[in-house]
Specification:
Helix content is 18%, strand content 30%. By secondary structure, the chain is of the alpha+beta class. The longest helix is centred in the middle third of the chain and has 10 residues. The chain is globular and about 40 Å long. The termini are far apart.
């Protein structure tokens, strides 16, 4: 598997695991669109850790994604679900309670992996 050449050295980190299992992401559109899966790095946002900026925030628990949507309304109010496999990239738990950073492998159609499972009201 390969990752974008413009990512910083050490990205994804050595302790990241092969992508696996169910994840949830807060998105703005139903169905999810490519724009819902742009990293800070891809959007040109330079604050924060450069390694984490290349990844995408996902949650292992749906309720945690719903909480994030309520806490940060600018993220969106649509919850989408995917089941990741090793060919989809690397993951690492990077927060509590179930916040995980996903570094998608090059060429992965991120939006196509996700299906809307709910809307936060």
């Amino acid at each position: 598997m390969s990752f974008p050449a413009d990512w910083p050295q050490g990205c994804p980190p050595d302790d990241a695991e092969d992508a696996h299992g169910e994840v949830f992401r807060v998105v703005k559109t139903d169905p999810p669109a490519a724009a819902d899966f742009l990293s800070y790095h891809e959007m040109g946002i330079t604050r924060g850790d450069p390694i984490r900026r290349c990844g995408l925030s996902v949650f292992r628990v749906r309720a945690d994604a719903e909480h994030a949507s309520r806490a940060f309304p600018n993220l969106g109010n649509v919850i989408a679900r995917a089941v990741l496999a090793p060919e989809h990239g690397k993951v690492k738990q990077t927060g509590r309670p179930s916040h995980t950073t996903w570094w998608p492998a090059e060429g992965v159609d991120r939006a196509a992996l996700f299906t809307v499972v709910g809307v936060v009201t």
